[in-house]
Amino acid sequence: MSFRHIRIGMNMTKQIELKIEGMHCDGCVRRVTALLKRVDGVDVESVVVGEAKVLARDGVERAELGKAGEGGGCKVAS
Fold it and tell me: I need a surface site. Which of 43, 59, 70, 75 has the fewest CB within 10 A?
């Protein structure tokens, strides 16, 4: 996982790249995308097999993103 901070308006936001294990098809991509979009404070930039890029407000914990991936039957790699 990597990230960088970006200032958008008055909010500090970080771009996070997640490596996701267990994604094998477009169905997995759609499922994980939908679950990541449900995390408060997260905007999904892209999701492809094996990885996702999101913008997350400060305060969004990595564990929240991991739970979203697990809900889709995948695992966010350390």
Answer: 59
